[in-house]
Design brief:
253 residues; homohexamer; alpha+beta
């Protein structure tokens, strides 16, 4: 690993970005009309449509407890990718990668919700990738948070949820980004070209208090060392702070 | 049935449109980057992403015959509709309605392709509904045609397909529209509100020669009579002529 | 297309029938013993066993509304056809064609039933093809109607359903037939040999008032024109009138 | 257990038959047209359509070995029974009972076939129950044997299979019957009413040399003793000898 | 068949055992900690983990009847066998053999339980094969009986079930063994090498009163004759008496 | 978070272990007979049977490349847990948790294998949980490594694989352990009681060079901070060093 503090110049990223530079992020609220929250988020060429749907029922294990539930589903359009993938509905099952990602999104968003304030409601975050260029799961989490806030705010505005002692169901904010070691350099927000060619790939989910919600690192080429871990989490921390700012701007807009 | 030629005023459609008026149609080519053809088509609030993917293989029943294949898959994002529907990939199978629609799309587009000029290639048209407001299958067919032409033109430009005697694989054009009897009046291009409240619903697929490719009429309330059938097919004929003009403009654009 | 009114002789159909001639139709009631209605219908060599089963429950979406439900399932024995097809139960799913046909049968029969007079009961029409020679779905609809009437009459005879103001749940009659353009000639009731070799294939469902319930036309070879549509629907109208007469005779028998 | 040789009168069977009396058996060859062998067999009110289909391929584990394969599939029409059962194709899987029965049919028929004389062919016996009144699996085996012989004879007649040294693929004959202990009396060929009310139920498959191919006995009420086993197998032996005579007559007819 | 009473020496079994000799049987109670009954049973190299799980609910068809239910599930670890088999969970369904075996285990154990004394409880016997060397289903039945007794005794000890008139839910004992004709000799308790090479294979389930619960014989090579059947059932009777003794010892231990 | 270096006494773990203390680890090689490698590993009451199966074929995407493949499957016996879980084979699919774990095991072990030295072979690691008490995935990885080494050594001993330049397919060692924050204290190797009650749960996979292979941390209660991350990874590093020592001992044994 190259010491990221060393003076020798890092190799240029395929995208031309600086190691700590995010791709251009766009967050478009109200992208579709029916959902209680609907956000099209782009991390560069990665585009994910995130909708939040409110239903007045909860899974069996929560019935009668007065609590709500937050869950997520993830999908990729067959031609979101370079070559066409089979449609999971046609194959008759969701693949392991899909299930893994949607479990991650669900856990991440539950970490910023006080479900006791939600009543017996389920909010489902559907994250569908329209175009993929790396980082679809981190874009999904970041966009789904905005859709979730829109849906909850609507419940509050309409009086269906009443804040208790000023507290509303969503506390804090959650966003996610990928980091990796690319040709020895810790880099932020990998696109597909970088992701295919990196030694380590880590997805980081954090809240606006700088705490870690999820950390999933995988050595692709060689095992990564503690100082690489430190460099990657530091990059992620800065990237996520920026993303949380962008979420705030979008929600204020 | 009210005679559509009679002078008594027809009741106003919920959309405020004249009986023979299409919704606003937009056709956006190149909506996503990876597919050989990629079109976002809107019929009013109905929005369908149609991609055409080229693969150098054919289904088993065509292997070694030197012919190509055109097929379609259809999906609806879970929250494309007023209330959330189950994700078919999660339920583990495609419903009857989905299968019926994707078979219709495939048959319709095969009707304008000379598969012997395609070589042993499959072009898959994925039609994914981002937002639904009635007429998703007719929008899908109309948009998929444009995506198909883009994909075939790219094969020609790159020299992978060589026209024979000036003929290219796609001959003519195909478009589709729904018609119905709404409160006794034959109307063109039903939106969801009209579709839920009409007596008869018919989907019509035609080519640019004015021939019928598919005709699927269903009496919802009462059986429809021959003169209603005639009025509906006449409306469809005009509507499809307009749509084929819009396809041409989009492809010229 | 050959003008059907022209004097030049039409080519002989493989079956030797006149263009407007049905195959021999047999309707055998009480074919099996357990079902409330059980009809073996033959359109020539096409033989379909149609049973009507009454159950005292309705699907979830109708519970508590006091209405009944009519639904259909369709199957083909693996060796009903020239070459053996996979058994759908063994493959683990019903194919698109099967689902499409059983949806059509269900819709067609619901069109002649006042479900509010049925009480919270479901009548399931199982249509199983013992031998296939074209037109299985139209034979199924025509036979299932007879089985349905038998089942409903039994409910009335046993006092489980009481007619209101003289009205019973089944009003009118429903039958179906296929028509097509075969070597330029509009012909009625296609058998397999004709179906495989025709330009257009249309399934028509009508009631005894001469109204259309369903119309599904597909251009196999070339697009069909309005005058062909007119000729086909006229043929269907006559054929269905004959079939409804045969249903009546069978029910009177 | 009542000693079947004792003089005290046995209770009358619901069917009025003597303890060692078969139901009326009918074997109708050529019931459908497409299959290489097609037999409708009735054991009283139990009716099973057995078809034999020849295909020029074998399962993967036999490829290239020059041997053939015999396999069976079993199905029950949804309303073959007193109350409607779910359609297995709609449920998406075959139940344990179905799989168990079709494995039994397959094993039983393989016991009378020299597969090395069959060439690389698969013969599939489809046994579909049109009406059930007990004993469907034994009727299926008895009828499938006749369909199998018809299919193999056709292969011989057409010269596709050439007997070696006078030997043809099917040697001997196979038939099956159920026996049971009903109210203490060993009885032959249980119908549904007897089967539902008996203490022991045994299915026996034998060949024309009097050897056992399969023996499956289940104590429903109380465990059965060796002398009951002996009485039941003796009854079965006689019943099967009769059935094999009827198969021969049918094949000679 | 060689007369087993004749003086000419029988060929030595691959295992070196005498024709009427069981493999070494070990029954280890309390093998795992969570289940109400948990037994590791070995028949030689065949090792099956049998657990009994008590749940306070019954299947739909028994609800409200005050009776309990006994059911079984069977599985084989993918590498329990000489070559690896596909994992059924990964293939998405249980094979016919698995379903057949688990139905057999369930029926066999229900034969020694008075379900009216069980209350509305289900006891599930999970039989998972850790290592297979022939006879897995008979070992499973024999071991599951011990697990079942442990689970029921625990329900009695804890007062959840109160014996009525001194009667407890489990009456008698049930065990199972395989027998076969190997190179003309009737032999007891086939291991894999013998099973692969025998002419007839029979699984026998009996109770401690010497009655037959289940008898399933299959001719693998040639049909078996009545005197072979007699010899096999006699061998089974002795073997099962020994197994029931071993169950008793284990339960007393 | 309590500073782990602070002097105030940490609360006692339910298991009575020191914060940095592993449970008793046992590694039993050759647990079953058929597999090329077969290891029963226990982390306290968690017991996982890990088998390595060698097959002379590779998945389609590797065919003809001269490389091998390492993959894993994971299962849990239905009553490995406190209450019985549904059998995945009976439910017809593997759950998201199962797929996630088996993907993790596969990736972890591929990280210590040079697949180009393996030839076109697949080694499948089946990890089946016989008894669960927390940490099943980390026990599975640690045990599967030993089974893998046994299988590869056997391939070398038998000459099927020839080391190139002294290099053999497995380089280094891989082991895994869980760490967490339990009542504010970073603790090693969580059992079920601790896992259910902890704020953060992290699974760490490392190699014998001290590099990270996988790191998966999840905030259950509150987000974790960088210093907690550091404390957890330090604990894991020590625990894994111990585990790798135990693997070595077992392999030397």
């Amino acid at each position: 690993m190259t010491d990221p503090t060393a003076s020798s110049p890092a190799p240029a990223r395929p995208s031309g970005r600086a190691p700590d530079q995010l791709r251009e992020v766009r967050i478009e609220r109200g992208y579709t009309r029916h959902a209680e929250g609907s956000v099209l988020i782009s991390f560069g060429d990665t585009r994910v449509l995130c909708t939040a749907s409110v239903e007045n029922r909860v899974p069996a294990f929560l019935r009668g407890k007065g609590e709500g539930w937050i869950t997520a589903e993830y999908g990729m359009l067959p031609r979101a990718t370079h070559t066409r993938s089979d449609r999971e509905a046609a194959r008759g099952k969701q693949g392991g990668r899909t299930l893994e990602i949607q479990r991650l999104i669900g856990r991440s968003l539950r970490a910023c919700v006080d479900r006791s304030l939600l009543g017996e409601r389920t909010i489902t975050l559907d994250c569908d990738v329209l175009q993929a260029d790396g980082g679809t799961r981190t874009a999904a989490i970041t966009g789904a948070y905005v859709a979730l806030v829109d849906a909850v705010n609507e419940l509050i505005r309409s009086g269906e949820i009443k804040p208790k002692g000023g507290r509303t169901p969503v506390f804090g904010a959650v966003a996610a980004v990928s980091v990796g070691i690319w040709k020895g350099v810790p880099v932020l927000d990998l696109d597909y070209a970088e992701d295919s060619d990196c030694d380590t790939d880590m997805n980081v989910v954090m809240n606006d208090g700088g705490g870690f919600i999820e950390l999933q690192g995988t050595a692709e080429g060689h095992a990564f060392r503690r100082e690489e871990l430190d460099a990657m989490t530091a990059l992620a921390q800065d990237g996520i702070a920026t993303l949380i700012g962008l979420q705030r701007e979008a929600l204020a807009g």
